[in-house]
Amino acid sequence: MSVEINSLLHAGYSHPLFREWQATRSITKSALMYPIFITDVDDAKEEIPSMPNQFRWGVSRLQEFLGPLVERGLRSVILFGVISDSSKKDSCGSMADSDECPVVKAVKVIRKLFPDLVVACDVCLCEYTSHGHCGVLYDDGSVNNAKSVERIAEVSGNYALAGAHIISPSDCMDGRIKAIKSKLMELDLSHRVAVISYSAKFASGFFGPFRDAAGSAPSFGDRRCYQLPMNARGLARRAILRDLREGADGIMVKPGTPYLDILAEAARLAEDYPISTYQVSGEYAIIHASAKAGIFDLKQHVMETMHGFMRAGASLVLTYFTPELLEWLDN
Amino acid sequence: MSVEINSLLHAGYSHPLFREWQATRSITKSALMYPIFITDVDDAKEEIPSMPNQFRWGVSRLQEFLGPLVERGLRSVILFGVISDSSKKDSCGSMADSDECPVVKAVKVIRKLFPDLVVACDVCLCEYTSHGHCGVLYDDGSVNNAKSVERIAEVSGNYALAGAHIISPSDCMDGRIKAIKSKLMELDLSHRVAVISYSAKFASGFFGPFRDAAGSAPSFGDRRCYQLPMNARGLARRAILRDLREGADGIMVKPGTPYLDILAEAARLAEDYPISTYQVSGEYAIIHASAKAGIFDLKQHVMETMHGFMRAGASLVLTYFTPELLEWLDN
Amino acid sequence: MSVEINSLLHAGYSHPLFREWQATRSITKSALMYPIFITDVDDAKEEIPSMPNQFRWGVSRLQEFLGPLVERGLRSVILFGVISDSSKKDSCGSMADSDECPVVKAVKVIRKLFPDLVVACDVCLCEYTSHGHCGVLYDDGSVNNAKSVERIAEVSGNYALAGAHIISPSDCMDGRIKAIKSKLMELDLSHRVAVISYSAKFASGFFGPFRDAAGSAPSFGDRRCYQLPMNARGLARRAILRDLREGADGIMVKPGTPYLDILAEAARLAEDYPISTYQVSGEYAIIHASAKAGIFDLKQHVMETMHGFMRAGASLVLTYFTPELLEWLDN
Amino acid sequence: MSVEINSLLHAGYSHPLFREWQATRSITKSALMYPIFITDVDDAKEEIPSMPNQFRWGVSRLQEFLGPLVERGLRSVILFGVISDSSKKDSCGSMADSDECPVVKAVKVIRKLFPDLVVACDVCLCEYTSHGHCGVLYDDGSVNNAKSVERIAEVSGNYALAGAHIISPSDCMDGRIKAIKSKLMELDLSHRVAVISYSAKFASGFFGPFRDAAGSAPSFGDRRCYQLPMNARGLARRAILRDLREGADGIMVKPGTPYLDILAEAARLAEDYPISTYQVSGEYAIIHASAKAGIFDLKQHVMETMHGFMRAGASLVLTYFTPELLEWLDN
Amino acid sequence: MSVEINSLLHAGYSHPLFREWQATRSITKSALMYPIFITDVDDAKEEIPSMPNQFRWGVSRLQEFLGPLVERGLRSVILFGVISDSSKKDSCGSMADSDECPVVKAVKVIRKLFPDLVVACDVCLCEYTSHGHCGVLYDDGSVNNAKSVERIAEVSGNYALAGAHIISPSDCMDGRIKAIKSKLMELDLSHRVAVISYSAKFASGFFGPFRDAAGSAPSFGDRRCYQLPMNARGLARRAILRDLREGADGIMVKPGTPYLDILAEAARLAEDYPISTYQVSGEYAIIHASAKAGIFDLKQHVMETMHGFMRAGASLVLTYFTPELLEWLDN
Amino acid sequence: MSVEINSLLHAGYSHPLFREWQATRSITKSALMYPIFITDVDDAKEEIPSMPNQFRWGVSRLQEFLGPLVERGLRSVILFGVISDSSKKDSCGSMADSDECPVVKAVKVIRKLFPDLVVACDVCLCEYTSHGHCGVLYDDGSVNNAKSVERIAEVSGNYALAGAHIISPSDCMDGRIKAIKSKLMELDLSHRVAVISYSAKFASGFFGPFRDAAGSAPSFGDRRCYQLPMNARGLARRAILRDLREGADGIMVKPGTPYLDILAEAARLAEDYPISTYQVSGEYAIIHASAKAGIFDLKQHVMETMHGFMRAGASLVLTYFTPELLEWLDN
Ligand SMILES: [Zn+2]
Ligand SMILES: [Zn+2]
Ligand SMILES: [Zn+2]
Ligand SMILES: [Zn+2]
Ligand SMILES: [Zn+2]
Ligand SMILES: [Zn+2]
Q1: Burial tier of F86 (Cβ tally within 10 Å: 0-12, 13-18, 19+)
Q2: At what angle do helices E176-186 and E145-162 cross, to 10 degrees?
Q3: Which residues bind 5-aminolevulinate 1 per the record (chains A, B, C, D, E, F) (predicted)?
Q4: Which residues make Cβ contacts (< 8 Å) with residue F117, sequence separation at least 6?
């Protein structure tokens, strides 16, 4: 009973170099985007208890924070605002694009300090609204999609004016990509500001530590009416196709590893676009916990997740492990 | 700037029931297979330190162990043998299918005790060989594929004769599905013993705790020449297609969550077959560690992974959380 | 007349980093394989007039030649034999796998000197036959395919026994992949020697300088009856599919840039396999001539071709620019 | 070990005529379009140093230049304007469609002299703007897409009024195909003036000699924000699909040989349209340099590139070798 | 109510040259194969009443007949034998490959007279059997497929030995392609004799005049049990795929125009192969009759059919209009 | 050398009934539409010399003409108008939809006489314009598409008001389907008048006799700028897709047999629509000439073409053989 010749696979991966050749794409520094938290306390460097080694940074400490990373090869960051003084929050998130918004200030500073660093701005209202929801609400507490989209587009325009290279709306409202693109055209910025849409963002339990970090938990209700149900492959596909139709320059899937199947689907549906994924706070915290418990070596664990993202089709990964990866990729 | 009508997705998931409707398939008790460790110490119940709540069981305690689970709805198990007395191991894993093999004995006992419970046998040599590799070796320590396949088929035949409903080879040798199927035909058992192939089994770091549990770490070298490289989508596809061509009745992807993209690929390639995935020991241990560290509620975490498996296309999940899931699915 | 929103592409590539994200795969050191000429004069280092900076090397100078490159990150080489003493050539290319063959000797030396370097052997008869054809001939001067395949398999087996990791038949005979794989199985080497087939090798004018280098021009006739006609997309597709069916571990398209369309086709047809392409001697010489004539900067020219290979789907590139690329990729 | 019958390919190309039958399409005179440079010095015939045998022609010498070629079977030309007197250039390229524009004058003359010759006009601003960019600029030096599209459409309309059969915009602005088509409808010319779009035009190093010829190098910056990144298969696909959606009558890929994979992709995406490719100035100069250096016979080299274009799916080739090809096709 | 821009098609074919660009392939001399009748009367030139301008030629007049055509560019012929002396016919068509067979003699003569002319031999038994059927019969008059295939392969081998470049079996027996290929391998001719299969040959009324020409009408019954039913798209597809699987080098569809849909299907199914079609005797006679009746100009009619063949995907056309086409293509 | 089992096709068509089963669809009376010429001489029955057995009928003789056919099972007709008095023709074809138009009168009569007979009206201007072109012209003699479309829609509306069930525009203007549909909506008739578009109508030589019949030859120029070039598979596909996009209820390919490949393409592209084809006047005349010349029996010839239409995918055939077919289908 001899083996069929074309059943023989072993030879094709019998040597470490052969195994590298099997990769459809390799991990590079330019594929990493570092998510950072900017607080409204300008000289702050505050620990985030649930996320080891991550801090909330004030604008005046960005040189200290980012300088060494840029030197090591950091190519892009994505900014999230943190408002420690809750009295500045209101129902429509006015702070989100005021001149005092830490994100607006940080964009300007970073563009000046590091002219070659790409700056993306996450756009959402939840860090700035008194109710902690991602949009503007009706009186009954449900989301007013039309008003929300208008506001999201307005904020996006102001981030673009401040100097953002990329607008990344994470709010999950229906129709916001078209609204943002239209706003950018109106501002004559549509030719140099790209829009990467959080198209497939799921109502996941992996976001817990982030809400700590950004102070953005909703004060009532939850986000299941705008973030996608975790079982919903069909809605995810429709959201991706919708955002392409509306003019998105890139697509994001979030969280990462627990939704690798959707990432692969995105890479197929949006085969002509850069595909990104966000290894979220929960994934980050768990990898640390797992290393601490002696279950899995941290570096090996991170690398296995990175291989997974590349294998599934990502061209860009948002990860809190960016500093470590910049080092590891040098060796 | 009004929203395009076909950009509106929110209504479709605005109610909890609507969100359930989005699922392509739901989680049921019949979709769970419980992996259990059978030791050669007949009356043992040994803790496995790296895997909370999991034990190595002796054959004489299977009634005590499985009885309550069967009552709760357990429909299938998969057996792994553990040889505590290393003097019984040799270079070709003779113990694997001897009458003294705990798996052989357990199959017979379980079939008698629980006539309706489906019994699958994992087939591999690593738990039984002195060198701890999954096949028979050449003198230079590399795997002799032809000899290994022959031995794997022989062991499979003996498990089938002992009463196994399903043969599940996890050894990753080239051509073993055809060999097993041929052996079953020779024994006139091919019409009632199914073969579920570990087609896409990756050389993953998530297997650590399992090796503790089964005492199966290789004494030298590693398994990278027969388990798939973790970046290799292409080899995984080829292995799945090969196993279908050779007659497999079902396909497995292992580990689970970190390879969801491959699970989705398998569901596409093998669309006419039952698709299974193995939530492995490392995934299990990490979910426990994460709960213990307060990052993610255990039940919610398990459920999010289960939703992922179903969304990606699994019809069968091998998971150590089977006992908990049998309970949760009742509520 | 306003512009349609989804007609706007500029933003998506308005920043250098955005342009990098558009790449489906990036160029890495592990993707380079360096083709080298081994002469039967053991201490030789002979200039190849038509190929600037390339030499024919004797076996005793391989440490001097390859040492610095391995240090810089060279991961793989492919060997071509050169027989300067034409009295050693005969009608069936006996020298090809004799113990005196420079390739056989070089494989052994390199494996000893650089244990981590992957060694591929080009397999063909033309460097060793008195008539300079790639196979064994009938009396009428046409190729005897059956005899040729038998001989090619025999040579392949001997290279594998000498230590080659990869066998790469460039002879274009019908059915040789199956024959080589069968020979490797017979020798119990099929699990650790991979076969990369020159599946789509065209009767191109770009091979001129190579024939100088290897002393392998046919003494009569040409190779149009076994190398593919340059217009033949259909035959190329059939040859690729045939070689996959016969068990190849990888596929090659040759030449490179002038057949990029076929490379893209290969990447589609063989999507589960590593895809390689050979930037041949003529392409190499022309890039040098173009730089010398001031038409195109050499580094930019090479990089544009490399981007092309990656864009079209290559995972492995055989190029004489490997030494330069190892340097450039460090900056 | 006999060869499988359907592995036998040799017979299918064993005779020169069989090899011709393998071609999916053959090279004909009607598939050639000759790119010519028209200067504002009416009686000029100026050598272009970087492009052997190519000249800038004044309008009054077109009879002498084109007469013999038309007799030999020339079916179409594409015109590029050259403004030697830089004082005639301004920020919006007014000269591009003035009555004094050499292209406008040449269209009229050629239509009168050679009524059966098809005349295409390349449409771009870079030969006419003081800054040398392909569009109208914002004050910050970046491209104003809306204004540029408007101007491109205006110029196109004037070339159509002068008698052009084909408008070929090479400017790469977003949305210009729709704008041009709308302008032609407005002028009641949309039923007899076709638009062939430079849809996939890459920011390539192969354009060097052209800039010499046309005097069109940008005075600052480069064209990377509107010409496609050379790694970007996805953007190229999107640009082709966009132009089809906007009403293009044909599609162009430029440069030719180094982007054959994209040409093949275009032939698939736009399978119902004539597909054209431009063998650009750098390709032309390099083929000459290669012949001069004795690497590759000029005619054989040109023919191998032409076979490549046809194989990849071109129905129309813009090439400076048109005069030679008209001769070669007669033999 | 304005017209949608992408509904505008007119411009794309408003000029005669634009209309030529729409062709996917053009008609060339190398795409023509001339079917000729060779009689056993060596010095004959006999009119065929039903086929104007076509004759049965004796072997000694082939110089006179073919010389001028070869000079005009004739590249290939296909030979049909005619046995005027019915006493030479028997039940197994022994004459078909005897040394006295006019086809065997003609092959030798033509190969000597015109070394560059490709010679194909139609292989069938009906011109040589006493019963006029295409195969060997059982006693009940039905076809003995196994015997027929054996005999067809034998005849094919003898034509190949006589010097035929191409074997073209028109007999429609099941499995004859594999048998012919095997015979050619046995004779060491498989590398230089190609097989073009009449894969989709229908039981058509358009064959009437041919039977006159070749004297091959069956003496009883008809050919509906081996020629395809004219309604049978499915059988035609299966026959094409079967012949590819069995090793055919090319595929034929017969008749031509009335089965253009099947020709297009063949071009899709066999996209990697040369596709041929046979404009049969009935089509030829009708075009003449139509011209004579003043319904349609002969040349225009022929050209419209030729455009149809090219449009549907033919790379090779067997047509009795070859002499006229050789002339027309010169103008 | 035995025959492969899956190479055996003969059995599947060895019996006449089996051969019928091979048909994907059969010929029925309901699939026939009879094209008839209505002249402005009310009591006329004029022979059409080039079309045996076909007449131009006056309105008052329609009972005599159609009565027996309806009795035999005629289900639908398509009407063409003939204006014998050329003084009634003008530049915009005013007669086309005047109350005196023979088509308008005939629709009303037929609807009254044969309430169950479906009446289609061919819509074109060429039978009614003084210049004989299918649209309204610019002063330079080229077609004014916008004006033509407007006029075609107006005529369509009037035929619908007169009682036509189907509007069939044969004019080939760009965008007329959308215009006709809009006109029908305006008239509140869009729910009961279907539009079958002559989407793929080629500039064929097979239309000669029709122009005699309808008196519609153009007085200058030809129709090549609006009827499709006969080589243009791409344009035909685009025209079909365009008409579907614009709302057509059915698609027509014309002529029939010489464009069977396009008919098959239409059946694929418009798989959800009824597909029709027109066996045109030239095809009709030639079948008669062929029968008269003794080449092919008329009935067998017609049936072979009908089998072809069905095989290629037609659901509706416009043929002048309708009366004969109604008879033949009864036997
Ligand atoms: Zn939010
Ligand atoms: Zn194992
Ligand atoms: Zn060779
Ligand atoms: Zn330009
Ligand atoms: Zn026959
Ligand atoms: Zn008309």
Answers
A1: exposed
A2: 40
A3: 211, 223
A4: F66, F70, F74, F75, F76, F77, F110
Instruction: Read off the pTM.
Output: 0.92
A6 inside domain: no
Residues C97-119: what's their mean pLDDT?
97
Q: What residues have CB less than 8 Å from E258, skipping those under 6 apart?
A: E204, E206, E283, F257, F260, F304, F305, F308
Residue E32: its H or E element: strand E32-39
Q: For residue C282, which amino acid is it?
A: G
Q: How far is it, in rounded angstroms, from Cα B197 to Cα F190?
A: 58
**Amino acid C8: pLDDT:** 87
Q: Does C257 contact chain D (CB < 8 Å)? A: yes
Tens of pLDDT, residue by residue over F184-234, are 999 999 888 999 999 999 999 999 899 888 888 888 888 888 999 999 999
CA distance A100 to A40: 8
The average confidence (pLDDT) of chain C is 94
Residue A8 placed within a domain: no
Number of domains in chain A: 1
Q: Alpha-carbon distance E167 to E181, whole Å?
A: 10
For position E2, what pLDDT does the model report? Answer: 73
Parts of chain A with a pLDDT under 70: 1
Q: What is the CATH number for A285?
A: 3.20.20.70
Chain E: nearest CA to D267, how far in angstroms?
A: 11
In a domain, B14, yes or no: no
Q: Is A15 helix (H, G, I), strand (E, B) or coil?
A: coil
Q: What percent of chain A has pLDDT over 90?
A: 84
Please determine, for residue E58, whether its predicted confidence score (pLDDT) is greater than 90.
yes
CA-based R_g, chain C, Å? 20
Chains C and B touch (3+ CB pairs under 8 A): yes
What pLDDT was estimated at residue C35? 98
Helix (H, G, I), strand (E, B) or coil at E99: coil
Cα D122 from Cα C106, distance rounded (Å): 56
Q: Which residues of A touch D138 (CB under 8 A)?
A: 188
* Predicted confidence (pLDDT) per residue in E251-296, tens digit: 999 999 999 999 999 999 999 999 999 999 999 999 999 999 999 9
**How far apart are the C-alpha atoms of F112 and D293, rounded to whole Å?**
86
Is residue F254 annotated as a catalytic residue, yes or no? yes
Give the number of other CB atoms < 10 A from CB of residue C135. Answer: 29
The answer to whether D234 and A272 are in contact (CB under 8 A) is yes
Spell B193-220 as b/e; 16+ CB within 10 A means b: bbbbbbbbbbbbbbbbbbbbbbbbeeee
Q: Is D209 in contact with D281 (CB distance < 8 Å)?
A: yes
Provide the residue range defining the domain that includes B291. Answer: 26-328
User: Residue A199: which of A120, A262, A272, A145 has the closest Cα?
Assistant: A262
With a CB-CB cutoff of 8 Å, which residues 123-162 of chain A face chain B? 143, 145-146, 149-150, 153
Rounded mean pLDDT, F266-277: 94
Choose the mutation target among D2, D5, D191 for the interface with F, i.e. most F CBs under 10 Å: D191
Whether D93 and D133 have beta carbons less than 8 Å apart is answered as no
**How many Cα neighbours within 13 Å face the side chain of F259?**
33
Residue B90 lies in a domain: yes
Q: Is E183 on the interface with D (CB under 8 A)?
A: no
Q: Tell me whether A271 touches chain D (CB under 8 Å).
A: yes
Helices D298-312 and D281-292: angle between axes, nearest 10 degrees: 140
In the three-class reduction of DSSP (H, G, I as helix; E, B as strand; rest coil), residue C167 is classed as strand
Cα gap B318→C8, rounded to integer Å: 48
Q: Indicate the residue type of E311.
A: R
C-alpha to C-alpha distance for D230 and C301, rounded to whole angstroms: 12
Q: Are strands F275-279 and F250-254 parallel, antiparallel or unpaired?
A: parallel
